[in-house]
Amino acid sequence: MAGRGRAPVRERPAASGQPRARAAPRGLLDRPAAAARDRRRHADGPRAEPLPRFRRPAAVLPPRGRRGRRAGREHLRRDRAGHARLRPRTGPRFPADQHHPRRRRGRPQGPHLPADRGPAALRGAGARDPGSEAQRALRRADALRGGARARALPARLRGAARGRPPGPASRTDDGGNLRHAAGRDRARRIPGARPAHLAHADPQALARLAHLRGRSPATGVSRDTDSPASVGGEPAAGHRIAVVGAGWAGLSAALRLAEAGRRVALFDAAPTSGGRARTVELATPLGRFEIDNGQHLIVGAYRETLALIERLGAGALLGRAPLSLGSPAGLRMRAARLPAPLHLAWALATARGLGPGARRATLRLMLQLRRANWRGVAGETVTALLARHRQPPALVARLWAPLCIGALNTLPGEACAASFAAVLRDTLGADRRASDFVTPHAPLGRLLPEPAVERLRALGASIRFRTPVRRLEARADPATGRARWRIDDGEFDQAVLAMAPWSAARLLEASDIPPGPIGDFAPEPIATAWALWPANAAPALPRWSLLDEDEGRCRHGQWLFDRGTVSPLETLPLPETLSPLEPGPAPAGARPGPARLAGIVISVASRLDALTPEAVVAGVSAQLAEAFGGPPPAAVKLVTERRATFRCTPDRPRLGADQLRRQAPGLWLAGDWLWPDYPATLEAAVRSGTDTALRILDARTAPGTVV
């Protein structure tokens, strides 16, 4: 104690050249005053820590209501004989005979509840205890009787291990001198087991047996027929489901049914698949090119369509970009890569060509539609909707009217406001990626129709093109008594009419089946003017753009989509003059080879019935020259789909896939005209086909169900 904090005194170092002497400490004289001071300072040992900083098991803490007070005299250390004046701080070690068998001797033992008093501080909750009779009567996830869940207390706290000491030796800070033992504190109730929200096992087992009964143990394929499906040949007599129509709705339905193990036969009168969104060959002075029969707009809201394209392995043929709208008149609007609705707010705040009043009106329309849950007044048209929300006429002509005509293929004065609100809800009112523009790098046939046909062939489906179905014959199955449908030379349990409504109505009338409201749909054409330039002489074009329509000057183009440079399938000799659909003589520099392709969309093409094709082509060429300048196109081909979509009016019929369940059991419908409150789009066709297939699978799975 006397030498604490003092450095040893060393002797004077030896002279140079002599052996170095070892330094020896010199003791200091003991000072009685310093010793007494040290004894007074260290007589009681280290100062006790406050109770809130005490790090021990919860079982040794004071009762509730006394925690947090100053330690005072009620500290957690107990006096020991012989250590009244100086008590050392004890560590968390036990004597060697009390160490756990699995622990090494001398290894510190962490704080824990005593082995004999562990469960005492945790009492059961009476009738809600997991081990009670009420809980043992519950069913487990495997439908066997027993406890609903494991016991709340682990095995290590249910009692002392055999051969283990009943409790550790008392230590300085074990809390043995507390006034109230921790075990007497009010115990917390253990919550009882929640009721099991599980499906009963009996109907699940019956459903599995019914599903397995119709599948082959060797191949896992449905055994609805006795012979395998022919791949690409004549359909066998045992085919169960026939799909009439190889459009996007029919292909999605056939894929879902074939992937579920059903035997499918696909019929179509056309030589290729795709329906009203197919790939065609177009002969031009620059060569023969593969293009679409019409330019289609794909947006990020087409979730099921894009997912199906990805699943078929054609996702690499799609490009994606944020929403961007522009026109030669000066409109510029581009969404930012921000979460919704900030991306749309940024587009409105930075838009050019729209004044402050137009921006406020656009924002007001979107907010009011959102508050109304994107629903309009029954029977209301788009013109009435825009007037009710006080949209300026200039904004309607520049923004809302082109969007309505392009999305619904119906004039605003006749278009359904509910369908227009649904389009705004799924694009501008949804997340940011829903409003993206998706541009294909290849014709539409390579995106879904061709990969879907290859997938169906791999699944064993029968594909029959150039096979028109002119009549459906219903026959009763002598074994089951159910109706079977004879199509061409095969019999089927069920059939899906994935056709346009006017085609389905004509087929039903020929089969002596009343079509009902199916025949009330009116078709509306869409025209696409395909403009081609030599690849080295094309003007600078945007990827897509709104066009300023002016019917008085024969400027009917509404949208332009740049398809980039395309290569011809084969080169053709350049004629001296172009065809009647092309303006003027052939340009001097035009030669067969790669070309720049752009599609100009003319929706509601029924307005062009009074015009000649030459007048329409001349107007489109002049419209392109006025908007973008540059040389005129070397060729312009006008392709008109006379029955492209149905006229989306408020009074059109709303039908379902099972519209014919009463007069024709087993006959289903699919098509873009069946999806409720949605215009004729690719997404509506894919959704309708998938929904019809799921309905068929659900009806076939339920035991005892007669379709």
From TrEMBL:
Residues 41-52, 71-82, 171-183 have a biased composition (Basic and acidic residues). One of its GO terms (molecular function) is oxidoreductase activity. Residues 1-183 are annotated as: Disordered. Residues 14-35, 108-129, 144-164 have a biased composition (Low complexity). Residues 249-697 form the Amine oxidase domain. InterPro entries: Amino_oxidase, FAD/NAD-bd_sf, SQase_HpnE, Zeta_carotene_desat/Oxidored. This is FAD-dependent oxidoreductase. It comes from Zeimonas arvi.
